[in-house]
Amino acid sequence: MERIISGTDMKKVDEYTINEVGIPSLVLMERAAKSVADLIEETTDKNSEVIAIAGTGNNGADGVAVCRMLYIDGYNTCIYIMGNIDKATQEFKTQIEIAQKVGIEIKDASRLTRDEMDKKHVIVDSIFGVGLSRNVDGDYKKLIEAINQSKAKVYAVDIPSGLNADTGKVMGVAVKADYTVCFGELKLGAVLYPGADYCGKLSFDNIGFPDVSYKKCETVYKYHTSDDLKLIPKRPNYSNKGTYGKLLVIAGNKDITGAAFLCAKAAFRTGAGLVRIFTAKENREVIQKLLPEAMVNVYDTDDFDKKALDACIEWANVIAIGPGIGTGGIQKNMVEAVLESRKNTVIDADGINVISQNVKLKKMLHKNVILTPHLGEMARFENKTIDEIKDNLVKSAFNINYMYNANGILKDARSVAVTQDDIYINMTGNSGMATAGSGDVLTGIVAGLLAIGCNVENATTLAPYIHGIAGDLVATKMPKASIMATDIIEEIKNIMPQ
Ligand SMILES: NC(=O)C1=CN([C@@H]2O[C@H](COP(=O)(O)OP(=O)(O)OC[C@H]3O[C@@H](n4cnc5c(N)ncnc54)[C@H](OP(=O)(O)O)[C@@H]3O)[C@@H](O)[C@H]2O)[C@@H](O)CC1
Ligand SMILES: Nc1ncnc2c1ncn2[C@@H]1O[C@H](COP(=O)(O)OP(=O)(O)O)[C@@H](O)[C@H]1O
Ligand SMILES: [K+]
């Protein structure tokens, strides 16, 4: 597990570290600059000409220090200042004084032309960091546009200038970097889209912030790394199929067969011991052919037998409901019966749509439920537009827990998983996964993890991580355009622990 932090919270960490812990600002800055200078030295040759384009805040101060370090190491460097130096931070003024004494040339960035930029090999982008406070316009905008058109390699200090470090939103215009080094932790604005597309190769360096400073800030987001796969429960030798859960998959309808198959098969590959599919009678034959390992119970849409459903619910210890079920009265009754059982439950797709239309069902959500909406489903659930959800991705996901006491995976290119304890941003996966049925596979993975004994919290946060790795493994074997949901399922076996 690693941490992600918003720009706003990082400022609190900065302040606490400097004012309460007593690590001087310039000491932190020296390490920040060193990490960028080291990266430039590792990825360029010494003949490279480097310019820092520096705003007059502490991000600019970092850039000036980067240039000074490279200059001392033999690089040809020059600093271009953007903004009014009279209003500069004390750290900036200090860094400029040092640079001048060292012998580095300092110029005015408002006179910097595209042609001049093209003659340089490396641009250190240190115009704005987490202190960006409003939309970028005027000369700043022109400068950033020129950086983006130049042929130089761009190294962003802390975050590409112009990105909102809390949301990843482009504030009018933003630098398109080849490399970005975040200080402290990865910045939320650098991992969320569209920001993520502006960072190039993204890394972070702690630069000496102590743990106690993070504890003082309000929210720390997290992301899973391969170490966390150890959270998946081990399979004891002395076990049988009942040990690995009785999963009921309520999915599919008259014209929709695939959803139940994809979800159930993904659950099997994740380790579920027994899977029973409850679906419309028209699907029985094809599902039995596609997935003979699953038990199949069916219902008649025109003559729904609630008792048969109740028996299935009674049998199960984990339930996945929603993919392709439809949103009529029968489906409402199904969702209601499932919620009444209070069993560990994943609710996806139409399951969520049904709840969105029904206040009573919303109130029945509980702590053993995991909702897995995509942006459209979340928009309906919250009665908002998709753009509103996109612009507030983390907050929308958070609301699933805050408002309804449930867990959630808000699916997007960077899915956000929320539980009572944590908010995880998923860093795995690729655009090849934007394909029909991919979400059904995720539902199956969540349900499979619950079935093998993962607690609700771990199942919520690990499922998108595993799903994304599976997609990334597929992408090593075929073009992203060709990836299908069934390919993703087949990689799950290469991720689960032996
Ligand atoms: N010791 C520390 O704290 C450490 C900090 N570190 C580094 O400091 C960075 C944060 O520094 P920061 O807080 O000084 O803010 P920063 O990102 O330089 O921007 C502020 C400047 O931008 C200006 N400005 C803003 N928006 C604007 C706009 N749209 N258009 C035009 N101008 C605009 C704003 O001007 P003003 O709003 O006052 O007019 C001000 O001049 C952080 O990202 C990291 O790199 C590390 O070294 C670790 C130790
Ligand atoms: N560009 C992307 N990068 C990473 N993951 C993606 C991307 N696009 C889609 N996904 C993932 O693929 C899945 C799509 O789910 P969903 O929209 O419910 O599809 P469907 O309804 O067709 O099953 C989600 O888990 C989502 O996070
Ligand atoms: K920057």
UniProtKB/TrEMBL annotation:
Domain YjeF N-terminal span(s) in chain numbering: 10-215
A Pfam family reported for this protein in Swiss-Prot or TrEMBL: Carb_kinase
Alphabetized Gene3D superfamilies for the sequence: 3.40.1190.20, YjeF N-terminal domain
Domain YjeF C-terminal: 224-498
Cofactor binding note from Swiss-Prot or TrEMBL: Binds 1 potassium ion per subunit.
Catalysed reactions listed for this entry: (6S)-NADHX + ADP = AMP + phosphate + NADH + H(+); (6S)-NADPHX + ADP = AMP + phosphate + NADPH + H(+); (6R)-NADHX = (6S)-NADHX; (6R)-NADPHX = (6S)-NADPHX
Cofactor(s) listed in the protein's UniProt record: Mg(2+); K(+)
UniProt entry keywords in alphabetical sequence: ATP-binding, Isomerase, Lyase, Metal-binding, Multifunctional enzyme, NAD, NADP, Nucleotide-binding, Potassium
Entry keyword annotation includes Acyltransferase: no
Residues annotated to bind AMP: 411-415, 439
Entry-linked CDD domains: YXKO-related
PANTHER family in alphabetical order: ATP-DEPENDENT (S)-NAD(P)H-HYDRATE DEHYDRATASE (PTHR12592:SF0), ATP-DEPENDENT (S)-NAD(P)H-HYDRATE DEHYDRATASE FAMILY MEMBER (PTHR12592)
Family statement drawn from the similarity comment of this UniProt entry: Belongs to the NnrD/CARKD family.
Name this polypeptide is given: Bifunctional NAD(P)H-hydrate repair enzyme
Organism this protein belongs to: Eubacterium album
Organism phylogeny: Bacteria, Bacillati, Bacillota, Clostridia, Eubacteriales
Gene designation per UniProt: nnrD
